[in-house]
TrEMBL record:
Subunit composition and interactions: Homodimer.
Binding site residues for substrate: R296, R332, Y336, E365, Y392
Listed Pfam families: Orn_Arg_deC_N (PF02784)
Protein name per Swiss-Prot or TrEMBL: Diaminopimelate decarboxylase
Molecular function via GO: diaminopimelate decarboxylase activity; pyridoxal phosphate binding
Gene encoding the protein: lysA
Length: 438
């Protein structure tokens, strides 16, 4: 009895901890008060559902946390987290720019009305044509990841007769990040310039034609919760900046990167007030223009992946709940061992006593599993929501196993709107060319 009660509270707790979710006795699970069952009825499954109000609210909260410390960093949203034009439109309307990693993301952000001057171009392998395009449009900042790239940009920009605004991405050699595959700031990670080489490279940047050395950037990983991890990185870079300024070099900007964590299961929220206070304490009074590049934190909690139970398979004592959403839709569990909370959607379904179930997708890979969750009995056709799927969800999906891209819906001003229709089957091969054979 006690056990059942504790278990019953498990998914209730997930809902209670998320202000955009609610559970109604009649309508079941709602996002922004819209019953998710009604969205499944209108648009089918699997479907991504996003709350515009959540993104707007989080953007405002992030700004307010820094404003509370007298800081107004430029916000450059990491487009790779969720690149839908409607979401980029919300970001732009909220006064933020973009952190892009390719010509594709650059063009998307531009299409959403974000000015190139409000964009930062990051990434370890920017191509020449991508750099030319960004420079021609007046990109706000290029985050340079290597000496080789710096020379390449110098050549391109000088030939174009422009000065490329360059920040060197320093690898401060601190271990951070919720998982080995999303930690980026250690020695041996492929990202950034080694801390010991960064000073010399900045001197070189300051002297190169076609380069305007504006400062440094650092991004130590993702899904980080401790301001202390960021503080260690910022202090190292600040030391570097002090030394270079001491030599008479101008360093005016520090890009603090992203990586702010969100609780996927039970867990506490990222302490943004403490983070902002730390940024003021460590970096305030140093005459630095600051940039932050949040991705996951802004959009992750804004989205759910709505899926339907295809069948329930019993194997001995095991209960496998097979969904119509798989790793082709949401790859994070397979890729990083990530866990997303799973909540029943239907009011009647949710009433049953929870018991452990292994939730899996339909893809022919053993790694296509969403973990063990305490769920009530779910019959084929029942709906579930995979929580916190707004970031690194749809952008990472594929059509593996011949599964079309899922539909996407955004709830704005209380009304759900289709923002991407489900891909049709013939669109799966529409762009393929079959050469004629004799
Ligand atoms: C991915 C990335 C971000 C965003 O990371 P989140 O963990 O989503 O906040 C920011 N900056 C750079 C350079 C990145 O590669």
């Amino acid at each position: 009895m006690m056990n059942a009660l504790t278990r019953d509270q498990a998914w209730h707790r997930l809902v209670a901890a998320r202000p955009n979710l609610s559970f109604h006795a009649m309508d079941g699970l709602c996002l922004d008060d819209v019953p998710l069952a009604s969205i499944a009825a209108a648009h089918g499954t699997p479907t991504w559902v996003y709350s515009a109000a959540t993104i707007e609210g989080r953007l405002a909260a992030l700004r307010a946390a820094f404003a509370g410390e007298g800081l107004a960093p430029a916000i450059r949203y990491a487009v790779k987290a969720n690149d839908h034009l409607a979401i980029l439109g919300l970001v732009r309307a909220g006064g933020a720019g973009a952190d892009v990693t390719s010509a594709g993301e650059f063009a998307r952000a531009e299409a959403a009305g974000i000015a190139p001057g409000a964009m930062v171009f990051s990434g370890v392998g920017k191509r020449e044509d991508e750099l030319r395009r960004a420079l021609a449009a007046g990109i706000g900042q290029l985050n340079v990841e290597s000496a080789e790239e710096l020379e390449m940009i110098s050549g391109i920009a000088a030939a174009m007769g422009v000065a490329a605004p360059v920040a060197l991405r320093v690898n401060p050699d601190v271990a951070a990040g919720g998982h080995d595959k999303i930690s980026t700031g250690r020695k041996g990670d492929k990202f950034g310039i080694g801390f010991d080489d960064a000073g010399a490279l900045y001197r070189r940047a300051a002297a190169l034609p076609g380069i305007e050395a504006v400062g440094f950037s650092t991004h130590i990983g993702s899904q980080i919760f401790a301001p202390a991890a960021f503080e260690a990185a910022y202090r190292r870079v600040l030391g570097l900046i002090g030394a270079l300024r001491g030599e008479g070099l101008a360093v005016r900007r520090l890009d603090l990167g992203g990586g702010f964590g969100i609780p996927y299961d039970d867990g506490t929220a990222f302490p943004f007030a403490a983070q902002a206070a730390m940024v003021r304490r460590v970096l305030g009074g140093h005459d630095l223009e600051l940039i932050v590049e949040p991705g996951r934190w802004l959009v992750g909690p804004a989205g759910v992946l709505l899926a339907r139970v295809t069948l329930v398979k019993r194997a001995g004592a095991e209960r496998f709940v097979v969904l119509d959403a798989g790793m082709n839709d949401l790859i994070r569990p397979a890729l990083y061992g990530a866990r997303h909370g799973i909540v029943p959607v239907g009011a009647a379904d949710a009433a049953g006593a929870p018991a452990p179930a292994e939730v899996v997708g339909p893809v022919c890979e053993s790694s296509d599993r969403f973990g063990t969750h305490d769920l009530p009995e779910l019959a084929p056709g029942a709906l579930v929501a995979l929580l916190d799927a707004g970031a690194y969800g749809a952008t990472m999906s594929s059509t593996y196993n011949g599964r079309p891209f899922a539909a996407q819906v955004m709830i704005a001003d209380g009304a759900p709107q289709l923002i991407r229709r489900r891909q049709t089957l013939d669109e799966l091969w529409r762009d393929e060319i079959v050469p004629p054979r004799r």
